[in-house]
Structures are given as C-alpha cells and as structure tokens.
Design brief:
Keywords: Signal. This is FAD/FMN-containing dehydrogenase. The chain has 155 residues and is an alpha/beta fold. 34% of the residues lie in helices and 23% in strands.
Amino acid sequence: MKRWSILLLSLLPLWANALEVGERLAPWTLLDQFDEAYSLDSQARVLLVARSMEAAKLVNAALKDKPKDYLQERQGVFVADIQRMPALIAKMFAVPAMRDYPYRVMLDRDGRVAPRYVAAEDKVLWLQLQDGRLVARQEYATAEQLAAALEQARP
C-alpha cells in the first residue's frame, strides 16, 4: 500500500501540469537542427511532440518520403525531446543526421518544452491548436496512424 501511495504522490505533479482543452499554450523558442530559432505562435495548428527516440522514429517514418514543406504546409511543428541524449552523440551524430530530414525538428536539448506536454514516452503526442489554444489531443503509436492523421490535416 505504501508503494501505491508513493506512486500516486509522485504522479500528482503530472496531473496538475496537464494541459487542458481550451488552454493557451505558453510561448517558447527552440533551435532546430540547423540552429535556427523557432518561436511557437498562434499560426501553428499542429504540435507534434516526441519524448523519446522511439517516438521520434515514428515521426521520421511518417514524414520521410514527404515533400520538404509537407509539415509546414499543414502549419505543423515537431518538437523532439533530446535532453537525455549525450551531448557528444547529439552534436557529432544525431543532429547532423537530422539535417537530411525533409522537415524541421525543434530540438528540446534542456527539457524546457517537451515536459510541458504530458504523454506516453513511446508515442507521438499530437496537439491540435487554434489561435494558440489547445482544441484536441491525440497520441499515435504507429507511423501509419500518424501519416494518415497528417493527410487529413491538409491546409
């Protein structure tokens, strides 16, 4: 019983910080894989968040054969949480490999942004936005599901 109490108390902050439908997302700025800054604004309609390498691979699989501006045309933004990745690996291998992707990846190197959006680590979190407010949320466990959702989000 003591374990359950501890577990429940440790999860309480996550529930308290969970973003609710109708709430405005707090602004943030991150650098992408080209070290270019991007600030979340009211123009974004879809925010994809990958909290693990597994989830980021789902996004890559869903977007790898798409045209260069595919995600941007859908007013989509992709945030990858890479705070647990060793800095040397990120700098020498992972980020340079991301430069070949046909889409921008906002890199959360310090865990300042991605933890705001609570989701399963192995899934891609989809936040549907309108004028900077959350209107819906969904989690995707496969690249096929994510690709189909992106197709439906046509501009």
